Amino acid sequence: MSLLLGRTSFGNPANKGKVLSRQDAELLLNQWVLNERLKLHMKQVARLMHDWAEEKEQLGEHDQWRWEMAGLLHDADWDQWPDQHCKKIIEELETRNVDPEILRAIASHGPLHFGVEPETKMDKMLFAFDELSGLIHAYSLMRPNAYDGMDVKGVKKRLKDKAFAANVSRDDINDAITRADLTIDELIQFIIARQAVVTI
Ligand SMILES: [Fe+2]
Ligand SMILES: [Fe+2]
């Protein structure tokens, strides 16, 4: 099964800056994603994208929502249409005239799978948060106090243990960190501090 998208251009440039309302985005999420665990993952990544846009990129509210929206919907088709992952949500958002930058970020969240290279900062951060966020959440589930007292060292130990959350691609994580020009410590610290408060 190939998920390669076979294209590198998404959306219509005339739709630059156009977003869904939060209500419409959440409605789409709730209609398409029935799996609560996946829904939580998407909300976690959305939160990380929002906070990164606000704190690190110092973007205004509209741009914060653009980043958040990319995170919130990046896996929207994974639950019901895994063989059309990425393709289906991109086509849906294209018909709704969504900002091409948001579409591109979603299309490049797995370069090896979809064949689209992360280029913008939004692309790179979505790719960087995706897998690492999942591993950190898996770690929280096995700790008696979940996120309380979790530190970078503990997460790095789990990263090295290939048997832990074995479906999380360490290669993707390393690749993403290099592309985003970040240190693993910085990224882990950022995720732990913000992800803890996200609930479905
Ligand atoms: Fe995905
Ligand atoms: Fe994801």
Explained architecture:
- It comes from Segetibacter aerophilus.
- This is HDIG domain-containing protein.
- Residues 41-133 form the HD domain.
- Pfam families: HD (PF01966).
- The mean pLDDT is 97.
- The chain contains 10 helices and no strands.
- Helices cover 60% and strands 0% of the residues.
- α2 crosses α10, α3 (61-73) packs parallel to α5 and α5 crosses α7 (121-142).
- It has helices at residues 22-32, 36-55, 61-73, 87-95, 100-107, 111-114, 121-142, 152-160, 170-180, 184-195.
- With 200 residues, it is mainly alpha-helical.
- It has a single domain, classed as Orthogonal Bundle (Hypothetical protein af1432), CATH 1.10.3210.
- The two termini are 31 Å apart.
- The radius of gyration is 16 Å and the shape is globular.
- One fe (ii) ion binds at residues 74-75, 78, 85, 109-110.
Q: Using the alpha-carbon principal axes, give the shape.
A: globular
Figure out the total of helices. 10
What does the main sheet amount to?
none
Q: What is the quaternary state of this protein?
A: single chain
Order of helices and strands: HHHHHHHHHH
**Low-pLDDT runs:** none
Task: Tell me roughly what share of residues is in helical segments.
Answer: 55-70%
**Measured distance between first and last alpha carbons:** 31 Å
- Ligands bound here? fe (ii) ion
Rg over CA atoms: 16 Å
Strand content: under 5%
Name of the CATH architecture: Orthogonal Bundle
Number of strands: 0
Quickly count the domains.
Answer: 1
Helix-and-strand structural type:
mainly alpha
- Predict the CATH topology: Hypothetical protein af1432
CATH class wording = Mainly Alpha
Mean pLDDT value: 97
